[in-house]
Specification:
The complex is a heterodimer of chains A (274) and B (262). Chain A has 274 residues and is mainly alpha-helical. Chain A has twelve helices and no strands. Classes of the chains: A mainly alpha (274), B mainly alpha (262).
Protein backbone atom coordinates (compact mmCIF):
# COMPACT_ATOMS: atom_id res chain seq x y z
CA UNK A 1 0.00 0.00 0.00
CA UNK A 2 2.71 2.44 1.06
CA UNK A 3 4.91 1.41 -1.85
CA UNK A 4 2.02 1.89 -4.25
CA UNK A 5 1.32 5.37 -2.89
CA UNK A 6 5.02 6.33 -2.94
CA UNK A 7 5.41 5.35 -6.59
CA UNK A 8 2.15 7.09 -7.41
CA UNK A 9 3.49 10.35 -5.97
CA UNK A 10 6.88 10.22 -7.69
CA UNK A 11 5.29 8.87 -10.88
CA UNK A 12 4.54 12.07 -12.84
CA UNK A 13 8.00 13.62 -12.27
CA UNK A 14 9.75 10.32 -13.01
CA UNK A 15 7.74 9.85 -16.19
CA UNK A 16 8.50 13.44 -17.26
CA UNK A 17 12.26 12.90 -16.84
CA UNK A 18 12.03 9.56 -18.64
CA UNK A 19 10.04 10.88 -21.62
CA UNK A 20 11.49 14.36 -21.99
CA UNK A 21 15.07 13.83 -20.91
CA UNK A 22 16.30 10.26 -20.88
CA UNK A 23 14.56 9.20 -24.13
CA UNK A 24 15.57 12.27 -26.21
CA UNK A 25 19.18 12.19 -24.97
CA UNK A 26 19.31 8.41 -25.57
CA UNK A 27 18.06 9.06 -29.11
CA UNK A 28 20.89 11.56 -29.60
CA UNK A 29 23.39 8.93 -28.45
CA UNK A 30 21.80 6.29 -30.70
CA UNK A 31 22.07 8.47 -33.82
CA UNK A 32 25.84 8.44 -33.52
CA UNK A 33 26.14 4.66 -33.16
CA UNK A 34 23.76 3.52 -35.93
CA UNK A 35 25.44 5.54 -38.62
CA UNK A 36 25.27 3.92 -42.12
CA UNK A 37 29.05 4.38 -42.40
CA UNK A 38 29.42 2.00 -39.44
CA UNK A 39 29.51 2.38 -35.66
CA UNK A 40 31.97 5.02 -34.39
CA UNK A 41 32.24 6.43 -37.93
CA UNK A 42 30.90 9.83 -36.77
CA UNK A 43 33.63 9.95 -34.10
CA UNK A 44 36.35 9.00 -36.58
CA UNK A 45 35.07 11.74 -38.85
CA UNK A 46 34.90 14.23 -35.96
CA UNK A 47 38.55 13.71 -35.03
CA UNK A 48 39.65 13.59 -38.68
CA UNK A 49 39.07 17.32 -38.92
CA UNK A 50 41.91 19.51 -37.58
CA UNK A 51 39.43 22.36 -37.05
CA UNK A 52 37.13 20.24 -34.89
CA UNK A 53 40.06 18.85 -32.90
CA UNK A 54 41.14 22.44 -32.23
CA UNK A 55 37.63 23.34 -31.04
CA UNK A 56 37.65 20.44 -28.54
CA UNK A 57 41.13 21.27 -27.22
CA UNK A 58 40.32 24.98 -27.04
CA UNK A 59 37.17 24.21 -25.08
CA UNK A 60 39.09 21.97 -22.66
CA UNK A 61 41.83 24.58 -22.30
CA UNK A 62 39.40 27.44 -21.60
CA UNK A 63 37.44 25.29 -19.13
CA UNK A 64 40.61 24.22 -17.26
CA UNK A 65 42.05 27.77 -17.06
CA UNK A 66 38.66 29.19 -16.00
CA UNK A 67 38.36 26.52 -13.31
CA UNK A 68 41.85 27.11 -11.89
CA UNK A 69 41.45 30.90 -11.74
CA UNK A 70 37.91 30.68 -10.32
CA UNK A 71 38.97 28.19 -7.63
CA UNK A 72 41.89 30.37 -6.45
CA UNK A 73 40.03 33.69 -6.60
CA UNK A 74 36.87 32.17 -5.13
CA UNK A 75 38.70 30.45 -2.28
CA UNK A 76 40.65 33.54 -1.19
CA UNK A 77 37.55 35.73 -1.35
CA UNK A 78 35.37 33.21 0.45
CA UNK A 79 38.05 32.92 3.14
CA UNK A 80 37.84 36.66 3.81
CA UNK A 81 34.02 36.67 3.69
CA UNK A 82 33.79 33.73 6.12
CA UNK A 83 35.89 35.66 8.64
CA UNK A 84 34.30 39.08 8.07
CA UNK A 85 32.23 40.73 10.82
CA UNK A 86 28.54 39.86 10.56
CA UNK A 87 27.24 43.08 8.95
CA UNK A 88 29.98 43.18 6.33
CA UNK A 89 29.44 39.50 5.63
CA UNK A 90 25.81 40.06 4.65
CA UNK A 91 26.78 42.80 2.21
CA UNK A 92 29.62 40.75 0.70
CA UNK A 93 27.34 37.74 0.20
CA UNK A 94 24.81 40.02 -1.50
CA UNK A 95 27.55 41.28 -3.83
CA UNK A 96 28.24 37.67 -4.83
CA UNK A 97 24.60 36.58 -5.08
CA UNK A 98 23.50 39.49 -7.27
CA UNK A 99 25.66 38.58 -10.28
CA UNK A 100 24.88 34.89 -9.74
CA UNK A 101 21.15 35.52 -10.13
CA UNK A 102 21.66 37.84 -13.09
CA UNK A 103 21.50 36.09 -16.45
CA UNK A 104 24.43 34.77 -18.47
CA UNK A 105 23.52 37.01 -21.41
CA UNK A 106 23.53 40.18 -19.30
CA UNK A 107 26.79 39.28 -17.57
CA UNK A 108 28.57 38.38 -20.82
CA UNK A 109 27.18 41.49 -22.51
CA UNK A 110 28.84 43.67 -19.84
CA UNK A 111 32.23 42.49 -21.11
CA UNK A 112 31.34 43.57 -24.66
CA UNK A 113 31.07 47.14 -23.33
CA UNK A 114 34.29 46.80 -21.34
CA UNK A 115 36.53 45.00 -23.84
CA UNK A 116 35.20 46.40 -27.16
CA UNK A 117 37.27 48.54 -29.58
CA UNK A 118 35.61 51.68 -28.17
CA UNK A 119 35.14 50.02 -24.79
CA UNK A 120 35.92 51.48 -21.41
CA UNK A 121 39.19 49.57 -21.03
CA UNK A 122 40.56 50.77 -24.37
CA UNK A 123 39.47 54.37 -23.78
CA UNK A 124 41.03 54.37 -20.30
CA UNK A 125 44.33 52.94 -21.55
CA UNK A 126 44.35 55.47 -24.44
CA UNK A 127 43.63 58.38 -22.12
CA UNK A 128 46.49 57.31 -19.85
CA UNK A 129 48.77 57.06 -22.91
CA UNK A 130 49.60 53.45 -22.03
CA UNK A 131 48.73 52.25 -25.53
CA UNK A 132 48.99 54.24 -28.80
CA UNK A 133 46.00 52.62 -30.53
CA UNK A 134 42.95 50.62 -29.34
CA UNK A 135 43.68 46.92 -28.77
CA UNK A 136 41.46 44.20 -30.23
CA UNK A 137 40.56 42.33 -27.09
CA UNK A 138 37.23 40.84 -28.17
CA UNK A 139 37.04 37.49 -29.94
CA UNK A 140 40.19 36.24 -28.25
CA UNK A 141 40.61 33.31 -25.88
CA UNK A 142 41.46 35.85 -23.16
CA UNK A 143 38.15 37.70 -23.49
CA UNK A 144 36.21 34.44 -23.22
CA UNK A 145 38.20 33.40 -20.13
CA UNK A 146 37.75 36.77 -18.38
CA UNK A 147 33.99 36.66 -18.94
CA UNK A 148 33.80 33.03 -17.79
CA UNK A 149 35.78 33.75 -14.63
CA UNK A 150 33.34 36.60 -14.02
CA UNK A 151 30.49 34.14 -14.54
CA UNK A 152 31.78 31.49 -12.15
CA UNK A 153 33.60 33.27 -9.29
CA UNK A 154 30.30 34.06 -7.48
CA UNK A 155 29.33 30.37 -7.65
CA UNK A 156 32.71 29.37 -6.23
CA UNK A 157 32.47 31.96 -3.44
CA UNK A 158 28.99 30.85 -2.38
CA UNK A 159 29.99 27.17 -2.46
CA UNK A 160 33.01 27.83 -0.25
CA UNK A 161 31.69 30.38 2.28
CA UNK A 162 29.44 27.76 3.87
CA UNK A 163 32.25 25.19 3.93
CA UNK A 164 34.76 27.60 5.49
CA UNK A 165 32.23 28.85 8.04
CA UNK A 166 31.64 25.31 9.25
CA UNK A 167 35.30 24.93 10.30
CA UNK A 168 35.19 25.24 14.10
CA UNK A 169 37.02 28.22 15.58
CA UNK A 170 38.58 25.93 18.27
CA UNK A 171 40.39 23.97 15.61
CA UNK A 172 42.21 27.04 14.30
CA UNK A 173 43.01 28.22 17.82
CA UNK A 174 44.33 24.77 18.69
CA UNK A 175 46.52 24.80 15.62
CA UNK A 176 47.91 28.26 16.45
CA UNK A 177 48.45 27.53 20.14
CA UNK A 178 50.34 24.37 19.23
CA UNK A 179 52.77 26.58 17.35
CA UNK A 180 51.61 26.39 13.75
CA UNK A 181 52.30 29.43 11.57
CA UNK A 182 49.28 30.90 9.71
CA UNK A 183 50.62 29.29 6.52
CA UNK A 184 50.87 25.88 8.21
CA UNK A 185 47.34 26.22 9.62
CA UNK A 186 46.11 27.06 6.15
CA UNK A 187 47.89 24.10 4.54
CA UNK A 188 47.34 21.47 7.21
CA UNK A 189 43.98 22.42 8.71
CA UNK A 190 41.87 24.71 6.52
CA UNK A 191 42.71 23.38 3.03
CA UNK A 192 42.11 19.68 3.85
CA UNK A 193 38.76 20.54 5.48
CA UNK A 194 37.77 22.73 2.52
CA UNK A 195 38.75 20.12 -0.07
CA UNK A 196 35.26 18.63 -0.58
CA UNK A 197 33.86 22.13 -1.18
CA UNK A 198 36.72 23.00 -3.50
CA UNK A 199 36.07 19.87 -5.56
CA UNK A 200 32.31 20.43 -5.75
CA UNK A 201 32.93 24.03 -6.84
CA UNK A 202 35.58 23.02 -9.38
CA UNK A 203 33.21 20.44 -10.91
CA UNK A 204 30.45 23.04 -11.24
CA UNK A 205 32.81 25.57 -12.85
CA UNK A 206 34.41 23.05 -15.20
CA UNK A 207 31.17 21.53 -16.46
CA UNK A 208 29.55 24.98 -16.71
CA UNK A 209 32.36 26.49 -18.76
CA UNK A 210 32.93 23.34 -20.84
CA UNK A 211 29.29 23.31 -21.99
CA UNK A 212 28.63 27.07 -22.19
CA UNK A 213 27.03 28.70 -25.18
CA UNK A 214 26.17 32.39 -24.62
CA UNK A 215 29.61 33.56 -23.46
CA UNK A 216 31.67 32.05 -26.33
CA UNK A 217 28.95 33.17 -28.75
CA UNK A 218 29.17 36.81 -27.61
CA UNK A 219 32.87 37.15 -26.73
CA UNK A 220 34.52 34.45 -28.81
CA UNK A 221 32.61 34.65 -32.07
CA UNK A 222 33.62 32.50 -35.04
CA UNK A 223 37.30 32.88 -34.19
CA UNK A 224 37.09 31.22 -30.78
CA UNK A 225 34.47 28.58 -31.44
CA UNK A 226 33.84 26.23 -28.52
CA UNK A 227 31.94 22.91 -28.31
CA UNK A 228 28.67 24.66 -27.41
CA UNK A 229 28.79 27.13 -30.28
CA UNK A 230 29.95 24.40 -32.69
CA UNK A 231 27.03 22.19 -31.63
CA UNK A 232 24.58 25.01 -32.27
CA UNK A 233 26.14 25.83 -35.64
CA UNK A 234 26.03 22.21 -36.82
CA UNK A 235 22.46 21.72 -35.57
CA UNK A 236 20.79 24.96 -36.68
CA UNK A 237 22.95 26.45 -39.46
CA UNK A 238 24.52 23.49 -41.27
CA UNK A 239 21.77 21.01 -40.24
CA UNK A 240 24.31 18.19 -39.84
CA UNK A 241 22.50 16.46 -37.01
CA UNK A 242 24.80 13.45 -36.93
CA UNK A 243 27.78 15.71 -36.32
CA UNK A 244 25.78 17.79 -33.81
CA UNK A 245 24.81 14.58 -31.96
CA UNK A 246 28.44 13.45 -31.97
CA UNK A 247 29.46 16.76 -30.37
CA UNK A 248 26.64 16.33 -27.82
CA UNK A 249 27.84 12.83 -26.89
CA UNK A 250 31.46 13.99 -26.54
CA UNK A 251 30.24 16.77 -24.22
CA UNK A 252 28.15 14.42 -22.06
CA UNK A 253 30.84 11.74 -21.82
CA UNK A 254 33.62 14.19 -20.94
CA UNK A 255 31.39 15.98 -18.40
CA UNK A 256 30.50 12.73 -16.65
CA UNK A 257 34.11 11.49 -16.78
CA UNK A 258 35.28 14.70 -15.09
CA UNK A 259 32.57 14.46 -12.41
CA UNK A 260 33.58 10.84 -11.63
CA UNK A 261 37.32 11.62 -11.66
CA UNK A 262 36.88 14.63 -9.38
CA UNK A 263 34.74 12.73 -6.86
CA UNK A 264 37.34 9.94 -6.82
CA UNK A 265 39.98 12.60 -6.17
CA UNK A 266 37.86 14.03 -3.35
CA UNK A 267 37.62 10.58 -1.72
CA UNK A 268 41.37 10.10 -1.92
CA UNK A 269 42.23 13.51 -0.54
CA UNK A 270 39.66 13.43 2.20
CA UNK A 271 38.39 9.89 2.94
CA UNK A 272 36.49 10.98 6.06
CA UNK A 273 34.39 13.78 4.59
CA UNK A 274 33.56 11.92 1.38
CA UNK B 1 36.15 31.54 12.06
CA UNK B 2 36.97 34.99 13.30
CA UNK B 3 40.70 35.30 13.76
CA UNK B 4 42.83 38.04 12.20
CA UNK B 5 43.28 38.00 8.45
CA UNK B 6 46.18 39.20 6.37
CA UNK B 7 45.41 42.79 5.18
CA UNK B 8 46.75 41.88 1.73
CA UNK B 9 44.05 39.23 1.52
CA UNK B 10 41.38 41.74 2.53
CA UNK B 11 42.61 44.07 -0.21
CA UNK B 12 42.44 41.22 -2.73
CA UNK B 13 38.87 40.37 -1.69
CA UNK B 14 37.92 44.05 -2.07
CA UNK B 15 39.28 44.01 -5.63
CA UNK B 16 37.27 40.86 -6.38
CA UNK B 17 34.13 42.57 -5.11
CA UNK B 18 34.78 45.53 -7.43
CA UNK B 19 35.36 43.05 -10.28
CA UNK B 20 31.97 41.47 -9.51
CA UNK B 21 29.93 44.65 -9.20
CA UNK B 22 31.57 47.12 -11.61
CA UNK B 23 30.44 45.46 -14.88
CA UNK B 24 26.82 45.69 -13.75
CA UNK B 25 27.22 49.39 -12.92
CA UNK B 26 28.78 49.91 -16.33
CA UNK B 27 25.66 48.40 -17.94
CA UNK B 28 23.44 50.84 -16.02
CA UNK B 29 25.62 53.74 -17.20
CA UNK B 30 25.64 52.55 -20.80
CA UNK B 31 21.84 52.21 -20.82
CA UNK B 32 21.48 55.96 -20.13
CA UNK B 33 23.92 57.18 -22.79
CA UNK B 34 22.52 59.58 -25.38
CA UNK B 35 24.56 57.99 -28.18
CA UNK B 36 23.59 55.48 -30.86
CA UNK B 37 26.43 53.16 -29.81
CA UNK B 38 27.30 51.54 -26.51
CA UNK B 39 29.67 53.55 -24.39
CA UNK B 40 30.70 54.14 -20.80
CA UNK B 41 30.81 56.62 -19.12
CA UNK B 42 27.51 57.74 -20.71
CA UNK B 43 27.61 60.85 -22.93
CA UNK B 44 24.49 62.84 -22.18
CA UNK B 45 21.62 61.23 -20.29
CA UNK B 46 18.47 59.87 -21.84
CA UNK B 47 15.77 57.32 -21.16
CA UNK B 48 15.01 56.81 -24.84
CA UNK B 49 16.65 53.40 -24.97
CA UNK B 50 14.20 52.23 -22.33
CA UNK B 51 11.38 53.57 -24.54
CA UNK B 52 12.95 51.80 -27.49
CA UNK B 53 12.56 48.42 -25.75
CA UNK B 54 8.82 48.82 -25.85
CA UNK B 55 8.88 50.21 -29.39
CA UNK B 56 10.45 46.99 -30.69
CA UNK B 57 7.69 44.40 -31.08
CA UNK B 58 10.08 41.48 -30.64
CA UNK B 59 11.15 42.71 -27.19
CA UNK B 60 7.56 43.18 -26.02
CA UNK B 61 6.39 39.76 -27.19
CA UNK B 62 9.46 37.88 -25.91
CA UNK B 63 9.15 39.55 -22.51
CA UNK B 64 5.60 38.21 -22.26
CA UNK B 65 6.72 34.75 -23.41
CA UNK B 66 9.62 34.64 -20.93
CA UNK B 67 7.32 35.71 -18.09
CA UNK B 68 4.72 33.09 -19.02
CA UNK B 69 7.37 30.37 -19.26
CA UNK B 70 8.84 31.43 -15.92
CA UNK B 71 5.49 31.28 -14.14
CA UNK B 72 3.81 28.32 -15.84
CA UNK B 73 6.96 26.24 -16.30
CA UNK B 74 7.74 26.66 -12.60
CA UNK B 75 4.16 25.89 -11.53
CA UNK B 76 4.24 22.76 -13.69
CA UNK B 77 7.50 21.61 -12.12
CA UNK B 78 6.16 22.31 -8.60
CA UNK B 79 2.99 20.39 -9.43
CA UNK B 80 4.99 17.22 -10.08
CA UNK B 81 7.97 18.18 -7.88
CA UNK B 82 6.19 18.71 -4.53
CA UNK B 83 4.57 15.23 -4.46
CA UNK B 84 7.95 13.78 -5.47
CA UNK B 85 9.81 15.61 -2.71
CA UNK B 86 7.12 14.55 -0.24
CA UNK B 87 7.34 10.87 -1.21
CA UNK B 88 11.16 10.93 -1.19
CA UNK B 89 11.11 12.13 2.43
CA UNK B 90 7.99 10.43 3.77
CA UNK B 91 8.41 7.00 2.15
CA UNK B 92 12.20 6.89 2.01
CA UNK B 93 12.36 3.15 2.70
CA UNK B 94 9.72 2.20 0.11
CA UNK B 95 11.67 3.85 -2.73
CA UNK B 96 15.07 2.89 -4.18
CA UNK B 97 17.93 5.10 -3.04
CA UNK B 98 19.07 6.10 -6.54
CA UNK B 99 15.67 7.57 -7.36
CA UNK B 100 16.61 10.99 -5.93
CA UNK B 101 19.35 11.27 -8.55
CA UNK B 102 16.84 10.99 -11.41
CA UNK B 103 15.41 14.43 -10.65
CA UNK B 104 18.86 16.04 -10.68
CA UNK B 105 19.56 14.75 -14.19
CA UNK B 106 18.44 18.03 -15.82
CA UNK B 107 21.45 19.61 -14.06
CA UNK B 108 23.90 16.80 -14.86
CA UNK B 109 23.12 16.66 -18.59
CA UNK B 110 24.56 19.77 -20.29
CA UNK B 111 21.68 22.17 -20.99
CA UNK B 112 22.69 22.60 -24.60
CA UNK B 113 22.54 18.82 -25.14
CA UNK B 114 19.10 18.74 -23.52
CA UNK B 115 17.87 21.59 -25.75
CA UNK B 116 19.20 19.97 -28.92
CA UNK B 117 17.79 16.53 -28.03
CA UNK B 118 14.36 17.98 -27.13
CA UNK B 119 14.26 19.89 -30.41
CA UNK B 120 14.96 16.73 -32.41
CA UNK B 121 12.53 14.42 -30.65
CA UNK B 122 9.75 16.83 -29.68
CA UNK B 123 9.57 19.70 -32.16
CA UNK B 124 10.70 17.77 -35.24
CA UNK B 125 9.87 14.18 -34.23
CA UNK B 126 6.46 14.65 -32.62
CA UNK B 127 5.55 17.99 -34.18
CA UNK B 128 4.96 19.67 -30.82
CA UNK B 129 4.37 23.43 -31.39
CA UNK B 130 7.05 25.85 -30.14
CA UNK B 131 5.32 27.26 -27.05
CA UNK B 132 4.36 23.92 -25.44
CA UNK B 133 7.85 22.67 -26.35
CA UNK B 134 9.45 25.60 -24.55
CA UNK B 135 7.12 25.08 -21.59
CA UNK B 136 8.17 21.42 -21.27
CA UNK B 137 11.85 22.36 -21.67
CA UNK B 138 11.64 25.03 -18.97
CA UNK B 139 9.62 22.87 -16.56
CA UNK B 140 12.25 20.14 -16.93
CA UNK B 141 15.09 22.63 -16.49
CA UNK B 142 13.74 23.87 -13.14
CA UNK B 143 12.52 20.49 -11.83
CA UNK B 144 15.73 20.01 -9.78
CA UNK B 145 14.95 23.22 -7.86
CA UNK B 146 11.39 22.14 -7.21
CA UNK B 147 12.44 18.72 -5.89
CA UNK B 148 15.60 19.69 -3.99
CA UNK B 149 14.56 22.95 -2.34
CA UNK B 150 11.20 21.51 -1.25
CA UNK B 151 13.00 18.34 -0.08
CA UNK B 152 15.37 20.46 2.00
CA UNK B 153 12.48 22.01 3.91
CA UNK B 154 10.66 18.66 4.23
CA UNK B 155 13.83 17.18 5.73
CA UNK B 156 13.30 19.35 8.82
CA UNK B 157 9.55 18.70 8.95
CA UNK B 158 8.37 16.45 11.76
CA UNK B 159 6.11 13.89 10.07
CA UNK B 160 4.66 12.83 13.44
CA UNK B 161 2.53 16.03 13.34
CA UNK B 162 0.98 14.74 10.14
CA UNK B 163 0.44 11.28 11.65
CA UNK B 164 -1.21 12.85 14.69
CA UNK B 165 -3.66 14.75 12.48
CA UNK B 166 -4.49 11.62 10.48
CA UNK B 167 -4.93 9.44 13.56
CA UNK B 168 -7.33 12.06 14.91
CA UNK B 169 -9.46 11.49 11.83
CA UNK B 170 -8.27 14.12 9.34
CA UNK B 171 -8.30 12.94 5.71
CA UNK B 172 -4.70 12.40 4.44
CA UNK B 173 -5.17 14.75 1.47
CA UNK B 174 -6.72 17.44 3.67
CA UNK B 175 -3.90 16.92 6.17
CA UNK B 176 -1.35 17.55 3.44
CA UNK B 177 -2.88 20.92 2.57
CA UNK B 178 -3.65 22.06 6.12
CA UNK B 179 -0.66 20.63 8.03
CA UNK B 180 2.26 19.75 5.72
CA UNK B 181 2.05 22.50 3.10
CA UNK B 182 1.86 25.44 5.57
CA UNK B 183 4.97 24.08 7.30
CA UNK B 184 7.05 23.96 4.12
CA UNK B 185 5.63 27.20 2.69
CA UNK B 186 8.93 29.11 2.70
CA UNK B 187 10.67 26.24 0.90
CA UNK B 188 7.99 26.18 -1.79
CA UNK B 189 8.18 29.97 -2.27
CA UNK B 190 11.99 29.86 -2.45
CA UNK B 191 11.83 26.99 -4.97
CA UNK B 192 9.41 29.05 -7.05
CA UNK B 193 11.66 32.12 -6.97
CA UNK B 194 14.89 30.26 -7.82
CA UNK B 195 13.16 28.27 -10.57
CA UNK B 196 11.58 31.43 -11.99
CA UNK B 197 14.89 33.30 -12.26
CA UNK B 198 16.58 30.23 -13.80
CA UNK B 199 13.83 30.01 -16.40
CA UNK B 200 13.88 33.76 -17.19
CA UNK B 201 17.67 33.69 -17.72
CA UNK B 202 17.88 30.44 -19.67
CA UNK B 203 19.66 30.45 -23.01
CA UNK B 204 20.90 26.96 -23.85
CA UNK B 205 17.59 25.07 -23.68
CA UNK B 206 15.47 27.85 -25.24
CA UNK B 207 17.98 28.30 -28.05
CA UNK B 208 16.74 25.19 -29.85
CA UNK B 209 13.06 25.39 -28.91
CA UNK B 210 12.29 28.85 -30.30
CA UNK B 211 10.96 29.29 -33.79
CA UNK B 212 9.24 31.76 -36.09
CA UNK B 213 7.29 34.20 -33.92
CA UNK B 214 8.00 32.39 -30.64
CA UNK B 215 11.12 33.36 -28.72
CA UNK B 216 12.32 34.23 -25.23
CA UNK B 217 13.89 37.47 -24.03
CA UNK B 218 17.52 36.24 -23.69
CA UNK B 219 17.35 34.70 -27.19
CA UNK B 220 15.88 37.93 -28.56
CA UNK B 221 18.72 39.90 -26.90
CA UNK B 222 21.29 37.67 -28.64
CA UNK B 223 19.48 38.06 -31.98
CA UNK B 224 19.25 41.86 -31.56
CA UNK B 225 22.97 42.12 -30.82
CA UNK B 226 23.71 40.34 -34.10
CA UNK B 227 22.35 43.39 -35.92
CA UNK B 228 22.49 46.41 -33.62
CA UNK B 229 25.00 47.70 -31.11
CA UNK B 230 22.93 50.51 -29.57
CA UNK B 231 22.20 50.95 -25.84
CA UNK B 232 18.81 49.17 -26.07
CA UNK B 233 20.36 45.89 -24.93
CA UNK B 234 21.90 47.70 -21.94
CA UNK B 235 18.47 49.02 -20.93
CA UNK B 236 16.87 45.55 -21.30
CA UNK B 237 19.71 44.27 -19.09
CA UNK B 238 18.86 46.89 -16.49
CA UNK B 239 15.24 45.69 -16.49
CA UNK B 240 16.48 42.11 -15.99
CA UNK B 241 18.67 43.29 -13.10
CA UNK B 242 15.58 44.83 -11.50
CA UNK B 243 14.00 41.36 -11.67
CA UNK B 244 17.14 40.04 -9.92
CA UNK B 245 16.68 42.61 -7.14
CA UNK B 246 13.09 41.46 -6.59
CA UNK B 247 14.22 37.82 -6.61
CA UNK B 248 16.99 38.50 -4.07
CA UNK B 249 14.52 40.23 -1.77
CA UNK B 250 12.26 37.20 -2.15
CA UNK B 251 15.00 34.70 -1.25
CA UNK B 252 16.06 36.85 1.71
CA UNK B 253 12.46 36.99 2.97
CA UNK B 254 11.91 33.22 2.71
CA UNK B 255 15.03 31.14 3.33
CA UNK B 256 17.57 33.94 3.74
CA UNK B 257 20.40 34.58 1.27
CA UNK B 258 22.74 32.41 3.34
CA UNK B 259 20.62 29.47 2.13
CA UNK B 260 22.51 29.81 -1.14
CA UNK B 261 25.81 29.14 0.62
CA UNK B 262 24.63 25.69 1.72
Amino acid sequence: MKRWLAWGLVGPATLAVLVFLIAPVAATFATTFIDPRGPFAPYVSYFASAFRRTVLFRTLEIAVITTIISVIVGFLTAYVIARAPRRAKGLLIMAAVFPLLTGVVVRSFAWLIILGKNGILNSTLLALHIIPAPLSMLYTEGSVIVAMVYLFVPLMILTLVGVLESIPEDLLQASTSLGATPAATMRQVILPLATPGLIVGAVLVFTGSFTSYATPQLLGGEQQMMMGTLLYQQAMVTFDWTLASTIAVIMVVLTIAIVIAMSALARRLNPVAA
Amino acid sequence: MNARINPLLVGFAALVMIFLVAPLIIIIGASLSDTTFLTFPPRGLTLRWFENIFAVDAFRSTMVTSFQLGVFGTLLSLLVGIPTAYALNRFRIALPRWLGTVYVLPVLIPEIVLGFSLMKSMIIGLGVPYFPGLLIGHALLVLPYAVRVVSASLASFDFSIEEAAISLGSHPLKTFFTVVLPNIRSGVIAAFILAFITSINDVSVSLFLTGPGVSTLPIQILAYMDQFFDPTVASVSVLLMLVTVVVMAGVEATLGLTFLTK
